[in-house]
Amino acid sequence: MQELAPPFDAGETYTRARIHDHYGGKRQAGIAPSASYPFVFLFYGAGDGYGYEDGFDGDTFVYTGEGRTGDMELTHGNRAIRDHASDGRHLYLFEMADAGEVSFVGEYAYVDHFRQELPDATGDRRSALRFELEPVATDRDAEPTPDLGDEQLERLYEEATGSNGDDEGREQTRTTTTTYSRSAAVRSFIRAYADGVCEGCGEPAPFRDGDDEPYLEVHHLHRRADGGADDPSNVVALCPNCHRRRHYGRDGDSFNENLIAYAESRPF
């Protein structure tokens, strides 16, 4: 079942302190439930030295629970993950970046958990909780790909390139600092141009969404946070597997370079 789109864009970078300033949650915790919003924030990528092992297993994300020493218990943040659906909360997963910044991976849902023996912060072996999380399809993800002829595609391209000003085509979110969502015109154009075929692997979209449209995700080749433009020349339409490969694969950087070379060969 689809959910409403989260107030963050997958692949975009945010300042963690500002997230907590607006939504609440402990600033230093890996699992940070908000007391004011129905959100549970999950952060990973900075705890390898404390016995945490987080990462993708196919489409499933395996997240290690909280607790630096001793056996982990199903209390506090760990309970918040397990019971988020019954509590009416959304799980939002972020990867830690540099200088207090985090990259939004997406919304996930608890599926199951298991125990695994891992070292704690002191190096002692302990029983750790490992949570299996599955991605949640959102209304934003399911934005339909328009069925356009050449004339309509040209019109959509003009709309997309015309939405690249400092303020045009950008939507301010509810955060206290100004962040921007992707331009709807750019997303619509690149999905229409791809015509249901992934620009990374050349394969048809793996499934059709709730509107019976080919499901492809929009990826910025150069991050907006690094000055990348919200422009058709800076985006590609990818299947979920290629999108995850770019962000989490061992060859993600070289794969992105190949995507950039491909984008430069397109006729726009």
Would you give an account of this structure?
A hairpin with a 5-residue loop joins strand 7 and strand 8. The strands form 2 sheets. Strands 1, 2, 3, 4, 5, 6, 7 and 8 form an 8-stranded mixed sheet that branches. Helix 3 runs antiparallel to helix 4 and helix 5 crosses helix 6. The chain has 6 helices and 10 strands; from the N terminus they run βαββββαβββααββαα. It has 2 domains: 123 residues, SRA-YDG (PUA domain-like); 115 residues, no CATH class. By secondary structure, the protein is of the alpha+beta class. The two termini are 37 Å apart. Pfam families: HNH, SRA_ScoMcrA. One of its GO terms (molecular function) is endonuclease activity. Keywords: Endonuclease, Hydrolase, Nuclease. InterPro entries: HNH, HNH_nuc, SRA_ScoMcrA.
Describe the SSE topology.
Layout: E1 13-15, H1 16-23, E2 31-33, E3 39-44, E4 55-57, E5 60-64, H2 76-82, E6 90-96, E7 101-119, E8 125-135, H3 150-162, H4 184-194, E9 217-220, E10 235-238, H5 240-248, H6 252-264
Parallel strand pairs: 3-6
Antiparallel strand pairs: 1-7, 2-3, 4-5, 5-8, 6-7, 7-8, 9-10
Helix pairs in contact: 3-4, 5-6
